[in-house]
Amino acid sequence: MTTTYKVLAQNTPSANTVTTLYTVPSATSTVVSTLTICNNNNSNTVISIAVCPANTAITSAQYICANTTVATNDTVFLTCGFTLAATDTIRVVASQTNVGFNAFGSEIS
């Protein structure tokens, strides 16, 4: 097995649009060590993050945070340790544009 430590994903989604930040490749497992959310706006923004097994639709149980406020020009660091299987996804949404989501971790294949 090979472990690759890397930036898993980076995205700045459109406002109020659920966006897939990361999908685990086939024949791969992933450990997400850190998620960052950077609000590059001059006002607070509301974000949500969900982890969806096997690329399923989002349900209430899958949110790791829902309708959480990130302050003006602030960055939030989440130390995670999520273990994901092939085809699992991380989905994000923000109430404004200019909100950067980053996922860091390792892929095991």
What does this structure look like?
Helices cover 0% and strands 61% of the residues. It has 109 residues and is mainly β. The protein has one domain (3-108): Nucleoplasmin core domain (Jelly Rolls), CATH 2.60.120.340. The strands form 2 sheets. A 4-stranded antiparallel sheet has the order 1-8-3-6, with no helix packed on it. Strands 2-7-4-5 form a 4-stranded antiparallel sheet, with no helix packed on it.
Topology diagram in text:
Elements lengths: L2 E9 L7 E5 L5 E11 L5 E8 L10 E8 L4 E10 L4 E6 L4 E10 L1
Antiparallel strand pairs: 1-8, 2-7, 3-6, 3-8, 4-5, 4-7
Shape: globular
SS strand fraction: over 45%
Could you name the CATH class?
Mainly Beta
**For the report, how would you describe the main beta sheet?**
4 strands, antiparallel
Poorly predicted ranges: none
Structural class based on helices, strands and sheet pairing: mainly beta
Q: Any guess at the CATH architecture?
A: Sandwich
Summarize model confidence as the mean pLDDT.
97
CA radius of gyration:
14 Å
- How many structural domains? 1
Number of separate strands: 8
Count of individual helical segments: 0
Residue share in helix: under 10%
Write the element-wise H/E pattern from the N-terminal end onward.
Answer: EEEEEEEE
